[in-house]
Design a protein that fits this description.
By secondary structure, this protein is an all-alpha fold. It folds into 2 domains: about 25-225, no CATH class; about 235-423, no CATH class. It is built from 17 helices and no strands. The chain has helices at about 1-20, 25-55, 60-75, 80-90, 95-125, 130-150, 150-155, 160-185, 190-215, 225-235, 235-255, 255-290, 295-330, 335-345, 350-360, 365-390, 390-415. Helix 3 crosses helix 9. It is globular. It starts with a helix and ends in a 7-residue tail after the last helix. About 45% of the residues are buried.
């Protein structure tokens, strides 16, 4: 009976490919695990979100978020672009590139740690022991913690979605459990920063040993993977800065409490964005590496249109439900409701990631440099211009405008990219 059911489901998926123009068998197999992962992620994230909102003061949360945002910005030096390069390399069968990538991430990650420790020394010098100790703890963990996560890029390249998703779910459950327990026991910010990092380190060490044995990489290497990874990192420097600097600027300009209000306004939007992007990137990235450029030019615009239509009802539902969600679960942050409703409009431009993914899959360095320089530069300029005059409203306007602009720029670059450039 179960065999007949599977066969009928398979036939239905094959039939649906006429309309979706997508490999629905692949999407169903991989998509199940990616979607399951994101559902669990969002459920656990919501619990953590509520715990922070109700167990920690707004000022303390603003400080906590400031330290983590700064640390995330320092992680640029861990060469995050190498992860994407490794995924494409492994998808092409050149698995040996993983080892060189891992060594390079650790080597460059030491710089991230040193910068964080420098900030620690600065704050200690000025008598702020909370920030001083918080940055010291982050600096100790930064050099290695991002490097260990490279195993997930390897699994993604091998299309091992079950392992990829189960790893992330396990890490999320354990780490969130520790941080929630810590919130009940202490309001000490440096200790909460330690609890944020320490379980992640141990879990990632365990997984990297496990998968080293389970999927021993072959010896074939891509000599361009490190160079391409550095290019991807370099071209995304401004983007990474732009993604973190809003929290930092509000903290520095307006203080810890407005920073907390803004964080609670934008976090639900980021979670929805992560949910959608996780499915798009995880499933489309390996496939994009296999497609010819001609095929990508033909199918991507249709998929962008379809995805946009699917996102519109998500935005409408969130705008209508946000006041009730905040009133029931986040009563200290009711002033964030209007901001989060408007920020949800930025999701409308999320399908641009398909244009970006196609350009990345075919190593369109010139186009990627243009997009990943112009867009975040405009975003940061808007932040710096509008924040002093309009406060949080300035940040909201900046984000919506820059997301719309990024859609236009990526669409133009995708359409005008030359087809004679090869990976």
């Amino acid at each position: 009976m179960s065999g007949n059911l599977k066969q009928k489901l398979k036939s239905l998926l094959i039939w649906s490919q006429k309309f979706t123009k997508t490999d629905m068998i692949y999407a169903a197999k991989g998509g199940f695990w990616i979607t399951f992962e994101k559902i669990i992620f969002n459920a656990i994230g919501a619990v953590s979100f509520i715990a922070f909102a109700n167990l920690l003061s707004r000022e303390s949360y603003g400080i906590y978020q400031y330290i983590l945002s700064m640390a995330a910005m320092f992680s640029i030096f861990s060469l995050p672009g190498i992860d994407t390069a490794v995924t494409f390399s492994v998808a092409a069968g050149r698995e040996g590139s993983y080892f060189d990538a891992f060594k390079n991430k650790i080597k460059f990650g030491l710089t991230a740690g040193l910068i964080s420790l420098s900030f620690s020394a600065y704050y200690f010098w000025h008598g702020n022991s909370i920030l001083g100790l918080g940055f010291a703890i982050a600096g100790i963990f930064l050099p290695i913690i991002e490097s260990l996560y490279l195993y997930n890029a390897f699994l993604l390249g091998k299309k091992q979605f079950k392992y990829y998703s189960s790893n992330n779910i396990t890490e999320k459950i354990i780490c969130s459990g520790f941080i929630i327990i810590a919130l009940f026991l202490t309001k000490n910010i440096p200790l909460l920063i330690f609890v944020f990092y320490a379980p992640r380190l141990l879990i990632r060490i365990y997984f990297i040993i496990k998968y080293w044995r389970l999927f021993t990489p072959n010896a074939e290497k891509d000599p361009a993977v490190i160079r391409f990874g550095k290019h991807l990192t370099l071209m995304n420097v401004l983007g990474i800065v732009a993604s973190q600097i809003d929290d930092i600027l509000i903290f520095q300009w307006l203080g810890a409490v407005p920073a907390a209000i803004y964080a609670f306004a934008i976090t639900p939007i980021q979670k929805m964005q992560d949910f959608l992007l996780g499915n798009i990137n995880s499933l489309a990235m390996p496939k994009a590496g296999e497609k010819s450029e001609v095929d990508l030019k033909r199918i991507i615009p249709k998929k962008v249109a379809t995805l946009t239509l699917l996102i519109i009802p998500v935005i409408v539902i969130y705008i209508l439900s946000a006041p009730f969600i905040f009133k029931i679960l986040l009563p200290k942050y009711l002033s964030a409701v209007i901001y989060t409703q408007l920020l949800s409009l930025s999701l409308l431009f999320l399908p641009k990631t398909l244009f970006s993914l196609a350009l990345t899959a075919k190593a369109k360095k010139k186009e990627l440099y243009i997009a990943n320089t112009v867009i975040p530069a405009v975003k940061i300029t808007l932040f710096l211009t509008l924040l002093p005059f309009f406060g949080i409203w300035g940040m909201v306007i900046s984000i919506i405008f820059s997301e719309a602009l990024s859609w236009v720029i990526f669409a133009i670059l995708f359409k005008t990219s030359r087809s004679d450039e090869k990976l």
